[in-house]
């Protein structure tokens, strides 16, 4: 057995583990990084990167069919689904060197390509190496949750770990789960020429503001995607090419392929956390607000420790634990400033509280400004006027923002900045936005806060009339 002593041992080389490894080693710590499968984790190999690449292929196809309003004759694109998957693989391949063993070893990290498991509160074994470390980080991510729906064990199905390698275009894709994975994949496949049915047990895009989610769902339906809500999958039957999903109320949906997208389960099995005295709960590793587990030497970050399962959250966690592990400084996580975006078209993005959450927390103190994209000149020029931004404001400070519309994922950045730094709404209202940009909706949403205060205010009118009388 080889033995290594190090400052920091990280288990899992996905978004969280890689960020910690590169940060810690470049600041002078000795770092061991253990990865049992693919460097880059879910985001690079089975998540964000391939999904956005497939969405890009779908957009290219969709553009060919929707040129008429611009004077460009629409044509039905000839989609080579396999070639679209080549594009996906190429994108992964382009980004992969950044997350590779070679790059990390070049930075000075010792990378071990094995699964790791705790053998004591201060030791992890990976293959034939035992690592003793001052601090450990569990960054093992999550995997697709596949519920025990009767019949599913005898029917072929895809998950996010297999769909990006599928080469034959599904004639009719059934998607169980109307969350971000389900809806992004539904639209990409529809645009690439598959029929698509989404079967959602409750409300599709249910974690977002329902009014804004509806704008997206309306557009997806208009593109030909069938979205069945209140449709909890109860039984699955059939074989490749002929699959049936029966939902609780007896409705039956038929398709050729099935994608399971009903949420995630934390990757805990291989870790033997008991040996380290690290406790878990249903959602993953139990952590305090410094991301420390019940063993104070062990931290946990990213999907394995967070209900907010996003790459940027894993990256944010990395910063929090680096501060604590490397400098021994107090460091706590916040969740109120975490944005997210779903990359359908139109996109759907959120930071802070939704209107309903803000109403519940702040009651009558809440003011909500609303601006539709239909009044934005750039949106009009591009023919993308479907969209709405809402900003939730309490005593002059935004506590949440929700956007459905073109590039909502980019536009939410301004509100993420404002909420992270607890800025006043005036910070956005005072900004000069270049014309004509979609970003002007942010400024207009901030300006709308002042509209009743300035334009519908008799006191302001009296003052202006008074000053005008005396001005030379
Ligand atoms: C289809 C899809 C699309 C997504 N799109 C987005 C998006 O657009 N934007 C966004 O922000 N997020 C997106 N996500 C979520 C994002 O991928 C995750 O939040 C992110 O990857 C979590 O990072 P992580 O470091 O916690 O885990 P991961 O990236 O999953 O990395 C964990 C790593 O640990 C390894 N591992 C597990 N157990 C062990 C062990 N015992 N020993 C050694 N190694 C181990 C795994 O092999 C894996 O490589 C998407 C997810 C999916 C599935
Ligand atoms: N753009 C992004 O940032 C992005 C994209 C994809 C995934 N992700 C991350 O991955 C996570 C997982 O995504 P997801 O879409 O798998 O999960 P999710 O939990 O967000 O959505 C799953 C959906 O499946 C439904 N469901 C559960 N059981 C069902 C059943 N038996 N029949 C029908 N419907 C059922 C749920 O009601 C829910 O709406 C997300 O929460 C997010 O953190 C992010």
Automatic annotation (TrEMBL):
<dbReference type="Pfam" id="PF02852">
    <property type="entry name" value="Pyr_redox_dim"/>
</dbReference>
<dbReference type="GO" id="GO:0016491">
    <property type="term" value="F:oxidoreductase activity"/>
</dbReference>
<protein>
    <submittedName>
        <fullName>Dihydrolipoyl dehydrogenase family protein</fullName>
        <ecNumber>1.-.-.-</ecNumber>
    </submittedName>
</protein>
<keyword id="KW-1015">Disulfide bond</keyword>
<keyword id="KW-0274">FAD</keyword>
<dbReference type="InterPro" id="IPR012999">
    <property type="entry name" value="Pyr_OxRdtase_I_AS"/>
</dbReference>
<feature type="domain" description="Pyridine nucleotide-disulphide oxidoreductase dimerisation">
    <location>
        <begin position="338"/>
        <end position="445"/>
    </location>
</feature>
<feature type="domain" description="FAD/NAD(P)-binding">
    <location>
        <begin position="7"/>
        <end position="317"/>
    </location>
</feature>
<dbReference type="InterPro" id="IPR023753">
    <property type="entry name" value="FAD/NAD-binding_dom"/>
</dbReference>
<dbReference type="Pfam" id="PF07992">
    <property type="entry name" value="Pyr_redox_2"/>
</dbReference>
<comment type="similarity">
    <text>Belongs to the class-I pyridine nucleotide-disulfide oxidoreductase family.</text>
</comment>
<keyword id="KW-0676">Redox-active center</keyword>
<keyword id="KW-0521">NADP</keyword>
<dbReference type="InterPro" id="IPR036188">
    <property type="entry name" value="FAD/NAD-bd_sf"/>
</dbReference>
<dbReference type="InterPro" id="IPR004099">
    <property type="entry name" value="Pyr_nucl-diS_OxRdtase_dimer"/>
</dbReference>
<dbReference type="InterPro" id="IPR001100">
    <property type="entry name" value="Pyr_nuc-diS_OxRdtase"/>
</dbReference>
<keyword id="KW-0285">Flavoprotein</keyword>
<keyword id="KW-0560">Oxidoreductase</keyword>
<dbReference type="InterPro" id="IPR016156">
    <property type="entry name" value="FAD/NAD-linked_Rdtase_dimer_sf"/>
</dbReference>
